[in-house]
Amino acid sequence: MSAPRTLVLKQDFHVSAVACAKRHPKQIKKENLAKRAAKVAEFERTKPSHIISQSAPFFNKLHTPASAYGSNTDYQHFLTNEDRTHLFETAPKEAVEESHLAAVEGMDEAMKHEQIKVETLQKIIGLQNGNAKAVQLWNIQQAVDWFKRKEGDTGSPEVQAAVLTVRIHNLNSHLQQHRKDVHNYKELRTMVHQRAKILKYLKNKDQNRYNTCLLELGLERRAVEGEITL
């Protein structure tokens, strides 16, 4: 009886010499530099604008010259609700009473004459008849009212940053139409850096107030922190 035959299976390993070879240090360095450059490029591509804020509820209260033209309820010269009541309601009645016009023509007829004067006054001081400077002043007042920490506050970091943001947006709109205005471009750059400086001070003073201010101004940290180049 013959002895059992032992089968020996042989496995061939086909390994490429290129795959096993170590990469040259120069090649590794080149690849690492390429990855780093790609990361830097992606970082710069996704970097938010230093000038234009993202959408935020605060900006819904502001006007452009075009939107102001269609508004008939907003007025120049920082009129408060009390001022409007006095000018458009109280003062006409007092004028009629003092002139005794009501006794001659009747109260209703006398008030019609005063109402014509009121409507004329409303047109004169209405924001819709104001120029771009008047619209900017109105927007600045809205910024003060929105960000003030107490009545009469005009100097807190939040108010200063908000006012600068309004001025930055206004000047940027101007520069979009007048691209050769070098002087105002320098002014824009100065205001952007000034706002960043104020926000840096606020960050060092109170981190929570800083975060809230950025959120309400529609600004990201990367837009106001670190190196700012325009």
From TrEMBL:
Any Pfam family hit: Ribosomal_S15
Family: Belongs to the universal ribosomal protein uS15 family.
Protein name as catalogued: Ribosomal protein S15
InterPro entries in the record: Ribosomal_uS15, Ribosomal_uS15_bac-type, uS15_NS1_RNA-bd_sf
Keywords: Ribonucleoprotein, Ribosomal protein
SUPFAM superfamilies listed in its UniProt record: S15/NS1 RNA-binding domain (SSF47060)
Keyword Ribonucleoprotein in record: yes
Listed PANTHER family: RIBOSOMAL PROTEIN S15, BACTERIAL AND ORGANELLAR, SMALL RIBOSOMAL SUBUNIT PROTEIN US15M
